[in-house]
Amino acid sequence: MPADRLPAGSPQAETQVYVRRRGRMTRGQHRALDTLSPRFGLEPGDELIAPDQVFGRAAPLGLEIGFGMGQALLHWARACPNWNLLGAEVYQPGIGSLLLGLERERLEHVRVVERPAEDLLARNLPPDSLDEVRIFFPDPWPKKRHLKRRLIQPAFAQLLATRLKPDAVLWLATDWEPYAHWMLEVLDAVPCMRNDAGPGCFAGVSSGTEARPQTRFEARGIRLGHGVWDLRYVRNRASTPSR
Questions:
Q1: Residue 34 bears catalytic tag
Q2: Which of 85, 93, 158, 185 is the most buried (most CB within 10 A)?
């Protein structure tokens, strides 16, 4: 086993069995999964992803975790044509929707991995490989008995930190206030991550090409009277996360 992989017994490296979330799919989404997955999809198995080979060029590497229906990732791809972008998702209608958008807009610098983010980070991405990670509106699992299912947990945050390059950015957003404070507490506790807004503070939404587009989940939350909380972290150059 290469030295930069997690040991097989670690929680993040355990094989995760998951059921593909099919949901209701349109004919177009079905077609996209059948015909566009070979073009835009990655199935890395247990192998490390080599971005220069996958994309055919050297460029900054970004990852969106849980891209939903793909609006924010499409926006990122349009705004940053000089980046290589990965999207991780297990919801098949959302994958189909993103694939249709990539085909329609002729965006060739995005690849999709249909697997849980923990698995992708632990098995397929080496340390210090990502220039930016975005996690917008992850499932808040609001019931107390479900809190352990939340994506942002101390072990996951530590794993993610090891995959970020020095000075790389982690950008998160949620419309569930208790989860916002949960994420703030978890991420502020990672020694090698610096809260860009200051300890215990939330970030403002950026403007210009870095603006976060309003997703349908965000729009729904606003209609229901929810607030929105953004968090931005930077991997410290002087600190090395434990691996």
A1: no
A2: 85
